[in-house]
Amino acid sequence: MADTVRIQTEDFDLTQELADLRAGNRAVGAVCAFVGTVREWQNPADANQPQAADKAVQGMTLEHYPGMTERAIQDMIVEAHQRFDFMDALVIHRIGELATCDQIVLVAVTSAHRGESFKACEFLMDYLKTQAPFWKKEATAQGATWVDARESDDLALRKWGIASQNR
Amino acid sequence: MSLTVRYFASVREAMGIASESWPTDIPTPTTVAQARAALVARGSPWAEALAESRVLRAAVNQQMVDAAAPLAPQDELAFFPPVTGG
Hints:
The structure holds two protein chains of two kinds.
Chain A: E1 4-8, H1 14-22, E2 30-37, H2 52-55, E3 59-64, H3 68-83, E4 89-94, E5 96-99, E6 103-111, H4 114-131, E7 134-140, E8 143-146, H5 151-158
Parallel strand pairs in A: 1-4
Antiparallel strand pairs in A: 2-6, 3-5, 3-7, 4-6, 7-8
Helix pairs in contact in A: 3-4, 4-5
Chain B: E1 4-7, H1 9-15, E2 19-21, H2 32-40, H3 46-49, E3 57-60, E4 63-65, E5 76-80
């Protein structure tokens, strides 16, 4: 298995993907995986407000930049290999129409020992959040709105020493 | 072949189109900032979609760049909002 980036509309089977990622590699001692899912509330405080149902996220549309998105994530994996001692990375990111509670993204990393795959996995997610060209549009009872980028995501990437200015 | 400009997400919605060739009646820009200013100067819909007051990011030939980045005549330029994947 080598580094793999897949952009797809279909859902993924976590168990199968992790099994495939480490298949045949007897040097693997650690597999670290992150799964991002569609959350019901943009702002958790909304859940307890009157007319909460109006703001609940019913679904999401994910847009990307074909060609650039795949390459950007591949470049991030190359950078991760320079920083951390891991074996293989898998990134699957869905696009198109998603429902609340659906899986959006998988970042999985194999290594000999856990420290490197934990760090590489977090690094890849932090990098993806501010530099991978995807855009989310959330649907609520009040209509569909584009999600705003967060300051906290730029800060997360900066902790790895990368000057991030997404917003 | 000419400079191609692509739009994504809310920028695409404001423009009403996903891409266009650089207009033949204005000089080809040499930087991303120049391209944005020249398009805004054309009026609607560019003036709203690419307004300087909007925080936008740009890519040239599918690499993220800043506003000072140079442009060559047959490049692919893209304007889009801050990314929100993951």
